[in-house]
Target: Methylthioribulose-1-phosphate dehydratase
Amino acid sequence: MDELNEHHGDTADALISAARFFHERGWMPATAGNLSARLDDDRMLITESGQHKGQLGPDGLMLVDLEGNVLSPDKQPSAETFLHIILYRRWPRIGAVMHTHSVNATVLSRLAQGSQIHLRDYEILTALPEVTSHDAEVIVPIFGNEQDIPQLAARVDEHMTQHPELLGYLIEGHGFYTWGEDVAQARHHVEAFEFLFECELNMRRLTP
Ligand SMILES: [Zn+2]
Model:
């Protein structure tokens, strides 16, 4: 924790601020979801398992290396830590990973079971990297929920090999994962996608 406070205070503060904001918006109820940030080539800072996201403080964060080894004594990592690790290992450009459990993402992932969401004709798409026009299409795949996290991580990893443009994915009846170059960009992506999920849900509700 000393190392965390001395050298990574700004990163910790950014994660805590994002967690509180997402909790206020109802995207991380109670202990649900997890957030992380890369510290260097080998290590990340991630929310500890069981931490309430509306009351998160520096003690609710822990250091884990990209092999999955816990570097913060007496801290319990989330079962989903490995889903963060595969992203950092895959692309050095990824600096932060965010996993939310919003109502909109959860309901949409169940309505569109076993398929994917096609997002197009939304101006806010231009808030996403490499999207320069509202008529571009962003595809969000939906993976079946799985308690076997290494299994789920392997499926996501394989999908990313085929689709290097991927910006985020849903897990059925569970939640959403997205990432960015740093905490600020990943946070923007959560906001943009949550807006899009709410639009999609309303479109489906209002269009017979
Ligand atoms: Zn989750």
About this structure: The domain at 2-206 is CATH 3.40.225.10 (L-fuculose-1-phosphate Aldolase). The chain has a mean pLDDT of 92. DSSP finds six helices and eight strands in the chain.
